[in-house]
Amino acid sequence: MGWQRLPGRGNLHPMHESFLHFIWQRQYFNRSALQTSDLESIEVLSPGVLNRNQGPDFLDARIRIGATCWCGPVELHIRSSDWQRHGHHGDPHYGNVILHVVWEHDADSPRGIPVLELSGRIPRVMEDTYLGWMRNLSRIPCERELVRQGLRPSAGWLRKLLTERLERRADEIEARIAGASGDRETVFWWQLARCFGHRVNADAFEEMARSLPLSLIGRHRSAVQQIEALLLGQCGLLEVKPLDPYVALLQREYRFLKHKCGLHPVRTPVKYLRMRPHNFPTVRLAQLAMLLHRQDRIFPMMMDLTDLHEVFRILTVTANDFWHYHYRLERPSAFLEKTLGREMVGNILINAVLPFRYLQARQRADAEGRDRVMEWLSQLEPEANVAVRVFLDGRQRAASAAETQALLEQEREYCARRRCLECDVGQRLMSAPGTSGLQPEPCQSRNSSALDLGRNRSSHLKPVSSLLSDGI
User: Fold this and answer.
1) What average pLDDT does the segment 96-113 reach?
2) Any idea what DSSP says for residue 438?
3) Where are the domains of the chain?
4) Looking at the whole model, is its pTM more than 0.85?
5) Which residue of 3, 14, 33, 249 is 20 to 30 Å from 344, comparing CA positions?
6) Strands 115-117, 326-328: parallel, antiparallel or unpaired by DSSP?
7) Structure-derived torsion over alpha carbons of residues 422, 423, 425, 429, reported in degrees to the nearest 10
C-alpha cells in the first residue's frame, strides 16, 4: 500500500498493510470487547498462518463471532473499500474469507463478511515507532533505537540473511549465464574483471572483459605483455607519451592486436579520482593480466579446489617488474612490488568465486558444497563497509565476511526497502512486552454448519498486557 490519509491522524499517513500483518500475526492490539462493524462480539482464537501465495493474507484462522466459531482465511486491508478496489469481489480465492480486518471501515461489507476495525486499538507507541521508521530518510530507519538499546541481530537471523544473499546472487548469476548461452566460464571472467575494478571501475572493467573473449586471451596468455596490452589498450590507458621502452612495447603490441582482431576500445572511462595508488586501474589491470598469464582456465580451478589457503595462494599474484617502479604508465615511482593484498583477494572470493561455487552446489543439490561456501566466508576477514557499522554495537569491526555479507543484505533488502516488520531487529524493537496469545479450540470452516457455543466467554482466555489494554 502507498501513503494513506486516515481520519483523526492529520496529514498523509504512511500506513502499510505490512504493519497490519505484523499487528494481526502477533495480536498486538487491544482485544478487549472486540466487535464487528455489525456489533457482534469477536474473539481471536488463532490469527492463522501468513499466506505468501495468491489468495487471502492469512489462512486457517480461528475466530469466534457471536456464538459461532469459524475456521478459515482472513483478509487485511487499510480500508474496507479496498476489497472492491483490489478486485476481490470477483475472485474465487476470496470466496470463503471469514473475517475482513481493516484499519478504517469506510464501506459496506461484501457478501456479508464480518469486518473488524483496528483503528484506535493499536498501542500508540507502536504506531508512532512504525510511522517514524517509514518517514525516516536514513538508510537504516531504526538506527536511533538500535544504537540506544544496543540491540544486535541474532545468530539465527544472520545465517538466514547470509543464505538469502547467496541465493539472490546465485539467481543473478544464473540469469546472466542464461543470457550468455550457458557459458559459465565467460560470465565468471566478466565478474572477475568487475572485482578487479572494485566499486569505482567495475563497469569499465566488465565492459573491457566483454570486449575480449577468453579464446583470444587464451591464444596470447604465454606472453604477459600481450595480455597487459590487450587489457590496458581496451580501457584506453595506452594513449600516453611512451617515456619508457616497456610502454612503447605495450603500445606496439596493442596496435597490432587491435588491427588483427578488429578490437574497439570500451566507451566507459576508467577513473583515478580519490583513489589510493595501489587501487589505480593500471595496477589492477597489470595484476589481472598476471593472473590470466599464470593460470590457464582459472574458472574450473576455482570451482574445484577444496583448500581455502590454496585458493589464496593462486589469487595472490604480483604484477611484472615494470610495475615495481610505476603506478601509472607515464610516471615512475619509488620501488614497491604490486602484489594483490589479502583484502583484494577476499573481495574476489566474496564477489566472484564463492557466489559461483554456491550456484554450482545448489544446482548439484550439494549441501556440503553450500556449507563450505558459508564456512569459507566465516574464515575471511570482514569487509570495511560503513553501511554495516550501526549494527556492530560499538565494535570496531565485524567477526568475519559472513557477518558483513549478512548485514549488507539486511541493509539492502530490508532497511532500504523499509521491510522493518519482516526483520528480526525490527520485530524485536517493535514487540510489545507481556502479550499473551489465546489457545485455539476446535472450529468449523465457514462452509460447514456452525457450532453453537453460547454466550459464555472461554475460560482459558488470558489477560492482555497493560500496554495493550491501557496504553493506546
Assistant:
1) 89
2) -
3) 17-123+434-463, 188-340
4) no
5) 249
6) unpaired
7) -20
